[in-house]
Amino acid sequence: MSYKLQISDNNLKINANVRYENLAKMDRPEVVAKTPTQKIAKERSVVNGKVIQQGEMTRQWVDDDGKIYGKSELTFWYSDEQVSENSQTKVFQVSGYQPLANYTDNYVISAYYELSPDDNGMKKDFDREQATRANLFQMRKLWEHLNENQMVARGEFCTSSRGFIASDGYIRAVKVNGNKWGLEIGVFKEEKVFQHLNEGVPAEAMAPVATTKKRIKMI
């Protein structure tokens, strides 16, 4: 499934309507558990030996006194700061550019999304084609800037309206097989913390020189 997104950079005068979709599409069969009689067994919630059926158990917000609250009655806090829930990003506003090495060396990327030009929802074939070409041109403009300068474009990018900590995305220029090109967004998860980096070029450890030792014999 693809989602609409507008990419904007006022300084470079880039404004592209695109669609993004997750690059992870490999279908993997599930690992299933089977009983000795080859029936499929699944983990389920059990209370006092009784299997809880769907709909019998719900999750609600409850205080230490056991009082139940609706989500709209609550405020949410991160440390001592009140926060609001994320909303899905509709406009990727480029906040800055960073060296490509940051993308590969400094950050853990949790997911990758491929970008394609949108047709702006036009009804007529001609209008759809024109909109797609215009957005593709804007994408290429951004691609050339990233490729020539070996940089990535950074901006806030939340793929869903869940959670409270907003994530950042990095747009990277992709070049495959010489003349094929594209753009991807990698979603920032956390910064890499290297704890075993080395300095300088190590000298090769030399093997000890074998020596002939005389054995002592009494007779």
What key attributes describe this structure?
219 residues; alpha+beta; Ku70, Chain: A, Domain 2; two-stranded antiparallel ribbon
Structural account:
The chain is of the alpha+beta class. The protein has a domain at 3-23 and 82-191: Ku70, Chain: A, Domain 2 (Beta Barrel). 15% of the residues lie in helices and 36% in strands. The strands form 5 sheets. Strands 11-1-2-13-16-15-14-12 form an 8-stranded mixed sheet, sandwiched between helices. A two-stranded antiparallel ribbon has the order 3-4. A two-stranded antiparallel sheet has the order 5-6. A hairpin with a 4-residue loop joins strand 1 and strand 2 (14-22). It starts with a strand and ends in a 28-residue tail after the last strand. The model has no long low-confidence stretch (mean pLDDT 89).
Short description, anyone?
Helix content is 15%, strand content 36%. It contains two helices and 16 strands. The protein has helices spanning 100-106, 125-149; strands at 3-9, 14-22, 33-34, 40-41, 46-47, 50-51, 61-62, 68-69, 76-78, 81-83, 91-93, 96-99, 107-117, 151-156, 168-176, 180-191.
List the helices and strands and how they pair.
Elements: E1 3-9, E2 14-22, E3 33-34, E4 40-41, E5 46-47, E6 50-51, E7 61-62, E8 68-69, E9 76-78, E10 81-83, E11 91-93, E12 96-99, H1 100-106, E13 107-117, H2 125-149, E14 151-156, E15 168-176, E16 180-191
Parallel strand pairs: 1-11
Antiparallel strand pairs: 1-2, 2-13, 3-4, 5-6, 7-8, 9-10, 12-14, 13-16, 14-15, 15-16
